[in-house]
Amino acid sequence: MSKEKLPVVVLISGRGSNLQAIIDDAENADCPFEVSAVISNRPGVAGLERAQRANISTRIVDHKSHANRESFDAALIENIDAYQPGLVVLAGFMRVLTADFVKHYEERLINIHPSLLPEFPGLDTHQRAIDSGAREHGASVHFVSCALDSGPLIVQARVPLETGDDAETLAARVLEQEHRILPRAIRWFAEGRLAIESDGEAERVMLDGNPAL
Ligand code: GAR
Fold it and tell me: How far is the CA of 91 from the centre of ligand 1 (A)?
């Protein structure tokens, strides 16, 4: 008898290449999760087409039809919870979320970000890494806490900077790594291998009982 797969809702804002990596992994018979729905805050984006091609339900919750963040996030919660997900994945979802939203999905909300957090939260991470003179850059998957692009780290991939790199060449190499680490983190979560431990000050992610990073 096959085990039940963890239902996952993926939130996107655009291209959806990370979503594609998740969809591709979910197609493997041994995958412990399934994508129940994809929700975009922008209509007409390529990520929605990717979901439709894979016969996954899609919804649009357009931030432009909401007067404020509270109302947008409440609508988002209603649409996500219709699918009763065990995990919500922000895969290129480019909206700042309210504390109420983050609290609602506490310990079951993860994000991918194109930098070695806590370095370079926010936008333009690749150019900022180049400008900083850093020798390496990368990507992080983390549980989401209230501040932008922050929360306990699950997995990171490091990418060395190469001579002549510009933001585009660097972004392409980082993106390859994103596509590798995001499905991996979702699998770990679905397999029940992740836990968040707190020592009163800092939180850290444990994988199979050992520090994940
Ligand atoms: C990805 O690089 C993702 O890490 C980034 O947006 C891109 C979306 O690409 N997310 C953030 O910057 C979140 N702060 P995709 O739509 O092709 O997956």
Answer: 6
- Considering the candidates 63, 104, 113, 179, report the single residue annotated as catalytic: 113
Prior bond to 118 cis, omega within 30?
Answer: yes
Mean pLDDT by 10 residues, the chain (213 residues): 87 98 98 98 98 98 97 98 98 96 98 98 98 98 92 98 97 98 98 94 95 96
Domains and CATH numbers, the chain: 6-211 (3.40.50.170)
**Contact status, residue 155 vs residue 164, Cβ threshold 8 Å:** no
Q: Which two tokens stand for residue 176?
A: 């390859």
42 lines ligand 1 (CB under 6 A): no
